[in-house]
Design a protein that fits this description.
The structure holds three protein chains of three kinds. By secondary structure, chain A is mainly alpha-helical. Chain A is built from three helices and no strands. The longest helix of chain A is centred in the C-terminal third of the chain and has 29 residues. By secondary structure, chain C is mainly alpha-helical. Chain C has 27 helices and two strands. In chain C, β1 and β2 form a beta hairpin. In chain C, α6 packs antiparallel against α8. The chains are: A mainly alpha, B mainly alpha, C mainly alpha.
């Protein structure tokens, strides 16, 4: 159970989250996959913190959690606003910004 | 013993992740993420980061996920249509994910950091305790601490503004 | 004052006059503009006399002075100065040009009185005189070309003076284009001269030429042929003559000054000035002589059938210049210049008289409609008769002495040049016939309607103004001829000018009577001293024989004209019916216009069309638009990446990250 295992797991979770973002169309689920990736990053941070031996990595992880929380709040607010305006909750249908 | 726990938690994390990306109903994806978060908390405990594990459960799985549940209940969750408007996306996405994983793994496993193949150094008893985290937050990382509190304030204000009912618009 | 100082003044006055009238056209009253114009040329003439007197004060061998104001271009072996060359030849030309010009300015003072563009006319006319003087006084080939080009421009400006007439502007363009062809020849000749001899300066060129070239070496022949191209274009010799008849669209004083007395003689002056080069290239000189002879005869036949008065006189000019060109080409330099002078007198006079008659005819120029002016306009008829007699070389007139001197020289030179003399006499017969054809048509007989009106009421005929060539009705505003017509009998400036010229046309030849007086050839002798041809002098007896033959031919020609046009008015029509093909050939101007159209104009238009349709559209447009289209296409391709799908952006992001990671992995392994 060396540090490597944790890091490989973290990489696996990160890729899984990435694939999820790419293949899901509901903004809700995309946000959830985003959470997956953030958590994978957190895992890596904490693993490195254990490897180095001081707790600074854990502080980083806590701040990441704060950021994730803020981002979720705003993202969900967006989703609610979209839903309120009766627009389809589908990232493929929300594509007016294009060249 | 620790390895068994590790593998259990790892399987839980992975299972939760796959549930998130695979389920049609977003409600199930939320549940999957909650399982994933709990498993991650166990992994944090294995890394002697008690405070982070606790924060993960209380803040993340507790508050953030509850928020998700509320919104999913409000918004509802329909299925998504099977047709893929972007050509090649369904095919390329898993491929790229796999490529990413392979590369990261090679980077990790082939790394010349010798410490990666150890369990980590022996740490003192209070490593990862709330006391240690608290001391760091208030001494060395005071500025990020305060900045993150401002960030939270901004997010709260932003969310209120975004989701507020417009006086002229109908709900 | 030195001769060159006088010469600079000669150049200055017309230029100042042109500028003053041109800039002051709003403030100057009409009479003042005319007075300034005439006075400036008169002053130039006075300074020309000054230069002459100063020159006569020198020894004959030393009568050549060069003077320059400043350096034009001095670099890399080039040394071109703004320099003039004063010697008997240039002073002679200056006097002829300024003298005749003064009289023509005086004539225009009255003739153009009711024209809206009066000031413009005098400004242009002064500018023309300045350019001609520049051409004549130039001391190097560059300034010669400058004067040459200015003269071409002035001719264009004056031919299309009535610019709202389409025929006039087209004629102006035709003249200018043909002139440019000549300019090309001249410029190329100058380039070759510089390459071979290393200088543009007359003195240096003429000094070095005999040493640098052997006789008839191809370079010198090429140079002379190119000079001839320029000379022929300016002097309206075959085949570059087609502009001259069309140039009659300009006002009559313009025809009289430019297309009779001065500009068209520039080619003759050129050949005389560069005689050193021509004597080194006898082939080119012979070409010039042949062309002169051909023009002489062909133009004479054309003048024989012309029904437009001014055009007939124009062809006569062409023919007489053929004489001059032939003269200076075979070596009769002073004879050629003498004929230039007398021709200036009587041709200018003829044009002036024609202008008066055309004015009486309310701008109708068709001689078939004119008759009986001998009674209606006494003064004009006498002037016309004087000019006609001189042109026909009636014994005792100026034309008599000058024309026959050329032909006597040709005979004296011997060999094939005797043929030139014989054909020259044939041309003289033709000249007499066509000249008196005009005179016997217009002057005697029953007065036509306009003449009758003049006799009875003293009023000049007045019709609605129309274009004499096409008959289209016109305005009398600026750009068209003015509403009033002025005839000599009612206008003293016209009378004064014509009177002086009439006297000169009759007695002007008496300065060069063979065996008795040799004013002109003595004066011009120092210029041509180095020439081996100028030493050929026909003996006095031969000269008198030539004069006798000339007299006989002239009287014969007048008699033939009488026979056809006075004694039996039916005869011309009968002759025309019998010789119909010949008549058609002459009346269609030997189809030169059609030939040039076929050989030059159509290919040029075809090239232009090709350039527009193929080259412009595919090559140029292809390059320019093609570049734009390529950029736009590339932009379109790149733009397709921004398809609005967030997921595809994410895909690209992750793909990029994967690629970057791969790179770093490979780089570090």
């Amino acid at each position: 159970m060396t540090i490597e295992w944790f890091l490989v797991l973290s990489a696996l979770l990160f890729s899984t989250g990435a694939v999820g973002i790419l293949i899901r169309r509901s903004p809700m689920v995309i946000l959830l996959c985003l959470e997956l990736m953030l958590n994978a990053g957190n895992l890596a941070l904490v693993a490195f913190s254990r490897m180095v031996g001081n707790a600074e990595g854990q502080i980083f992880a806590v701040i990441v959690m704060v950021v994730a929380a803020c981002e979720v709040v705003v993202g969900l607010g967006l989703i609610v606003a979209i839903f309120r305006r009766r627009l389809p909750l589908n990232v493929d249908d929300l594509r007016e910004l294009r060249g | 013993m620790e390895e068994a726990l590790f593998f259990a938690a790892a399987i839980g994390a992975l299972g939760g992740a796959v549930t998130v990306i695979a389920m049609r109903n977003p409600f199930y994806s939320v549940l999957g993420l909650i399982v994933h978060l709990f498993s991650l908390a166990v992994l944090f405990l294995l890394l002697t980061s008690a405070f982070v594990a606790a924060a993960q459960v209380v803040v993340y799985a507790g508050a953030v996920m509850v928020l998700y549940v509320f919104v999913v209940a409000y918004v509802g969750g329909g299925g998504e249509s099977a047709w893929e408007p972007i050509p090649g996306q369904r095919f390329l996405a898993p491929l790229l994910g796999l490529a990413l994983f392979v590369e990261l793994s090679i980077a990790i496993l082939g790394s010349s950091l010798l410490a990666l193949s150890t369990d980590g150094p022996d740490v003192k008893a209070g490593f990862g305790d709330p006391a240690a985290i608290g001391r760091l937050l208030l001494e060395k990382f005071l500025l990020p601490f305060e900045a993150s509190s401002i960030l939270l304030l901004l997010a709260a204000v932003g969310a209120v503004v975004l989701a507020a009912r417009r006086r002229e618009a109908q709900a | 004052m030195s001769a060159t100082a006088w010469a600079w003044l000669v150049l200055l006055f017309p230029l100042l006059g042109s500028i003053a009238i041109g800039l002051g056209y709003r403030v100057l009253p009409q009479k003042a503009a005319g007075a300034i114009g005439t006075l400036s040329i008169a002053l130039a003439f006075a300074c020309g006399i000054g230069a002459l007197l100063s020159l006569l004060g020198d020894e004959p061998e030393a009568r050549h002075h060069a003077s320059s104001l400043w350096d034009y271009a001095s670099a890399a072996g080039l040394d071109i100065k703004l320099g003039i060359f004063v010697d008997p030849l240039s002073v002679f030309m200056v006097l002829v040009v300024t003298g005749v010009s003064t009289l023509i300015h005086l004539y225009s003072y009255g003739y153009m009185q009711s024209d809206e563009g009066y000031h413009r006319f005098f400004s242009y006319l002064n500018f023309f005189v300045f350019s001609m003087l520049l051409l004549v006084l130039a001391g190097n080939f560059v300034l010669l070309i400058v004067g040459w080009a200015f003269v071409g421009f002035a001719s264009y400006a004056l031919i299309s003076f009535w610019y709202r007439r389409e025929t006039a502007t087209r004629a102006g363009m035709k003249a200018f284009v043909i002139n440019v062809v000549g300019d090309i020849g001249l410029v190329l000749a100058a380039f070759l001269i510089f390459r071979e001899l290393g200088s543009f300066d007359y003195g240096a060129v003429f000094e070095r030429a005999p040493d640098a070239f052997s006789t008839n070496e191809w370079t010198i022949v090429a140079i002379c042929l190119l000079l001839l191209v320029g000379a022929f274009a300016k002097s309206a010799q075959l085949p570059l003559h087609t502009w001259l008849p069309d140039a009659m669209e300009g006002p009559t004083p313009v025809s009289s000054l430019i297309h009779a007395a001065t500009m068209v003689t520039a080619g003759v002056y050129l050949i005389a000035r560069t005689h050193v080069l021509f004597e080194l290239a006898p082939t080119a000189a012979d070409v010039a002589a042949f062309v002169g002879l051909a023009t002489l005869l062909v133009a004479g036949t054309m003048a024989l059938v012309m029904t437009d008065l001014k055009r007939a006189i124009a062809y006569s000019t062409m023919s007489q210049i053929g004489y001059m060109v032939m003269g200076v080409a075979i070596g009769a330099y002073s004879a050629g210049m003498f004929h230039l002078m007398t021709h200036a007198f009587f041709k200018a006079l003829l044009f002036m008289a024609a202008g008066s008659i055309i004015a009486a005819m309310a701008n109708d120029q068709n001689i078939d409609r004119m008759s009986g002016f001998g009674r209606a306009m006494r003064f004009t008829s006498i002037a016309m008769l004087a000019g006609g007699l001189a042109l026909a070389a009636f014994p005792g007139t100026s034309g008599f002495f000058s024309k026959d001197e050329i032909l006597a020289f040709a005979e004296a030179r011997g060999g094939m040049y005797v043929v030139f003399a014989v054909l020259g006499y044939a041309g003289a017969l033709l000249t007499a016939v066509y000249t008196f054809r005009l005179i016997f048509r217009i002057l005697p007989g029953r007065p036509c309607a306009e003449a009758q009106e003049l006799i009875e009421t003293g009023h000049v005929a007045h019709e609605a103004p129309k274009n004499p060539a096409t008959g289209e009705p016109e305005d009398t505003d600026v750009g068209f001829p003015g509403p009033e017509h002025h005839i000599a009998e009612q206008n003293w400036p016209m009378r004064a000018a014509m009177a002086v010229l009439a006297v000169l046309a009759i007695v002007g030849g008496l300065v060069q009577i063979p065996g008795v007086v040799h004013v002109i050839s003595d004066f011009l002798e120092p210029v041509f001293e180095s020439s081996h041809l100028a030493h050929i002098h026909p003996s006095a007896g031969d000269e008198w024989r030539g004069l006798a033959i000339g007299a006989v031919i002239s009287l014969l020609g007048i008699g033939i004209a009488w026979f056809f046009y006075v004694a039996g008015p039916e005869r011309p029509r009968q002759l025309e019916a019998r010789l119909r093909p010949l008549h058609t050939l002459f009346a269609n101007k030997w189809y030169f216009d059609e030939l040039i159209d076929l050989l030059v104009v159509r290919p040029a238009l075809a090239v232009g069309r090709f350039a527009d349709r193929v080259f412009e559209r595919f090559v140029v447009d292809g390059l320019v638009s093609g570049t734009a289209e390529t950029v736009r296409g590339a932009g379109g391709v790149v733009r397709a990446v921004q398809n609005g799908f967030v997921r595809s952006y994410a895909l690209l992001l992750i793909a990029g990250f994967a690629g970057l990671a791969l790179y770093f992995l490979l780089a570090s392994s």
